Amino acid sequence: MMKTRSIITMLVLVMVIAACGGTAGNDTTTAAGGDTAAETTAATADTTAAAETTAATETTGADGTETTAAPSETTAGVAPEGDPIVLGASLPLTGEFSIAGTKHADGYQFCVDELNAHGGILGRPVELLVEDNRSDTEATVNQTQRFISVEGVDALLGTFSSLLGFPASTVAEQNGMVYPIPSSGALRLYERGYENIFYFQALPAELTGATIVDLVEYYEEQGVIPERPQTAAIVNADDFFAAAISNGLLGGTVEIPDSGEIVDLAPGFLAEMDIEVVFEEVWPIGYTDWLTLANSIRSADADMLAVSTASPDEAIALTQALQTVGYQAPLVYMSQGAQTEFQEALGDAANGIITHSVWSPLANFEGVLAGEPYTNQDFIDGFTESFGTPPDEDEAIPFAVCQGIAQAMEGTGGTDNAAMSQWLHDRTAEDPVRTIMGTYSWDERGLADNRAFLVNQWQEGELEFVYPIGEFEGTTDLLFPKPEW
Fold first, then answer.
1. Considering the domain boundaries, does residue 473 fall inside one?
2. Do residue 188 and residue 270 come from a single domain?
């Protein structure tokens, strides 16, 4: 299969790079004055919606910070007690990445609520601190340092976006803290020789395109796609993650910071499929001239459109602009679009759009929570009951991250980050971290072993699982060509 050949080729190219040392820059600290907890953004209490929707009650600590108190009686019959284990997460609750960032906060909070309902971690209650980094790198750095040096959190939980995760992981590495990563997939993050980063998704972003072209090849063989696309338009945000996906499709290079090493992705996944790229465009973060971009895409008149965005908001805005100018393509892929907000904002315009993911409600993996089995279906049912709406992957991924950190603490019997890092590195296929997204072990770079992407497609208002075939029950055939807007 092309999938195996492409992924092996890319991974061989990556593996030959010698691991480089971490950045030796000065530690970045925030100004700490007065009541530091009071400086924590009010968005913590406002957006951590699980605290308002579960049976847990909110209390106000001595420092004035609202926290979620554990239920007085847990499902396991033993209430957690003692000093809380504190987890800190700098998340984009406002700004460019706010949709996904807010969902990450909900996923983390629901995990904390579930842990407390099952006895906590090591018998101790768990507390979550969230700060709004406003989708800004400097704020992310300051907040991550503040969690470590001022708040004294026991563990960090990763942020959303490679743009924010790149500097945040450096702060964590410089301070010897484990940094579990939910949503920062650019390859350059993992080629810096860092010892404390662990990615809770599938392949690096540069290899995402392998799954998309494999889908085309499979459905061409099945006759669903009578003829593969001959031309493609590739557009992306000027963002680590978004640019990385396009880079893999186009066959560019990846420069590893502070090492001088280069990863060559040539010829690129589209060239391997003999698909000619007839249009390329990159837009800056904060871009708003979507109609101009949509008109340029329409003029190129490509058979396939690949859109790699930094946020669901961008995917929604560009889709609406494409609908306005009347561009039609038989195959449209977007890197963001699995969120329910995507379909709600677009309605019928979402029909036929494909997007990759690492989580599916159809995949009933059995994870572990507080030492007990906890399935993906348990997560779906509990989250839906608490929030009144089913979860999507931007809530599932952070939940899995939180599961992993909890298991590292339980596995080491404490919160020492050096011990937790070693414990996570020691996981194997036979003895992995077990989450609602499946099992995880990692290579020396912190990339997950033996993971692949899923592909979903919006069909009549439902996000259907269309590739790979045979992984889970309930697979639906690809809808091709994409219906007109």
1. no
2. no
Same domain for 385 and 237: no
Give 448-472 pLDDT, tens digit per residue: 998 888 999 999 999 999 998 877 7
**pTM for the full predicted model:** 0.75
Provide the pLDDT for residue 77. 52
Pick the closest to residue 345 from 473, 217, 461 (CA basis): 461
Q: Rounded to the nearest 5°, which phi and psi values hold at 187? A: -60, -35
CB 172 within 8 A of CB 144: yes
* CATH number for the domain harbouring residue 191: 3.40.50.2300
Same domain, 311 and 380: no
Helix or strand run (H / E) with residue 327: none
pLDDT, tens digit (0-9, with 9 covering 90-100), for 363-386: 889 999 999 999 999 999 999 999
Whole-number Å distance between alpha carbons of 90 and 108: 11
- Work out how many domains the chain is built from and give that number: 2
**Radius of gyration of the CA atoms of the chain, in A:** 22
Question: Which residues span the domain enclosing 373?
Answer: 36-202+361-440
Contact status, residue 295 vs residue 288, Cβ threshold 8 Å: no
Nearest to 71 by CA among 117, 104, 106: 117
Quick check: 18 pLDDT over 60? no
pLDDT of 474 reads 77
Question: Is residue 481 assigned to a domain?
Answer: no
- Kindly tell me if the per-residue pLDDT of 432 is higher than 70: yes
Residues 70 and 92 in one domain: yes
